Amino acid sequence: MRPSGRAADQLRTVVLEPDFSKHAEGSCLAKFGDTHVLCTASVDNSVPGFMRGSGRGWVTAEYGMLPRATHTRGGREAARGKQGGRTVEIQRLIGRSMRAVTDLTAFGERSIQIDCDVLQADGGTRTAAITGAYVALYQAFQFMQTAKAIKQIPLTDQVAAISAGIYKGEPVLDLDYDEDSSADADANFVLTGRGGIVEIQASAESEPYDRATFNKLLDLAEGGVSQLCRKQLQALGVGL
């Protein structure tokens, strides 16, 4: 029995609330159970120096946790003057995930900055951030389309992410903190709507596991991402 009482293949209650931020070109509050992440997308009519003159756009991301997103207060990284390794790794993952489904040649030399701020954490913050970031990114492109800066949405597919792991010997989907903190193995899967693999981060916490078990985790993740992609479309109000 999982601590939450969920079935092995059951997601937490997922809510994707678009247009959460008044000022951002795109925004989404992503709730995966008690994990809440605010994702915003901001459009800038310029690109980083290394992209200038290329005729291509850029999508990048930043990630952070509010001081009381967890059980105890964590200091602000800005106050320390340096981002932690985990923060850098996650924000790079979010950026790669968005670029994997974006045609960077289709919106000129413009940048879209994704900001993912964890308001409350209960496991799976990076997967919630990626899933919500896609909604925010899509909205930013809708804004550009309405402003006649682009003719069509330059996204080639959907992208979402979910965790899966081995809890008390059983493969389960979408680990919350209670499960993640004591799992025998855990993995994060970033997959596209058509089933493509963007990135898989997987590790065993105690004993190694075999290929058959990994395949079960991947099967769980594919089912979870399929559900998340439907929720993204519903949040955006576009056709299923």
From TrEMBL:
CDD domains: RNase_PH_bact. Phosphate binds at R86, G124, T125, R126. It is an enzyme of class 2 (transferase). InterPro entries: ExoRNase_PH_dom1, ExoRNase_PH_dom2, ExoRNase_PH_dom2_sf, PNPase/RNase_PH_dom_sf, Ribosomal_Su5_D2-typ_SF, RNase_PH, RNase_PH_bac-type, RNase_PH_CS. It comes from the Bacteria. GO terms for molecular function: 3'-5'-RNA exonuclease activity; tRNA binding; tRNA nucleotidyltransferase activity. PROSITE patterns: RIBONUCLEASE_PH (PS01277). Residues 10-140, 157-222 form the Exoribonuclease phosphorolytic domain. It catalyses: tRNA(n+1) + phosphate = tRNA(n) + a ribonucleoside 5'-diphosphate. GO terms for biological process: rRNA 3'-end processing; rRNA catabolic process; tRNA processing. Its EC number is 2.7.7.56. It holds the Pfam family RNase_PH. Keywords: Nucleotidyltransferase, RNA-binding, rRNA processing, Transferase, tRNA processing, tRNA-binding. HAMAP family: RNase_PH. Homohexameric ring arranged as a trimer of dimers. Phosphorolytic 3'-5' exoribonuclease that plays an important role in tRNA 3'-end maturation. Removes nucleotide residues following the 3'-CCA terminus of tRNAs; can also add nucleotides to the ends of RNA molecules by using nucleoside diphosphates as substrates, but this may not be physiologically important. Probably plays a role in initiation of 16S rRNA degradation (leading to ribosome degradation) during starvation. Belongs to the RNase PH family. This is Ribonuclease PH. The lineage of its organism: Bacteria, Pseudomonadati, Pseudomonadota, Alphaproteobacteria, Rhodospirillales. The gene is rph.
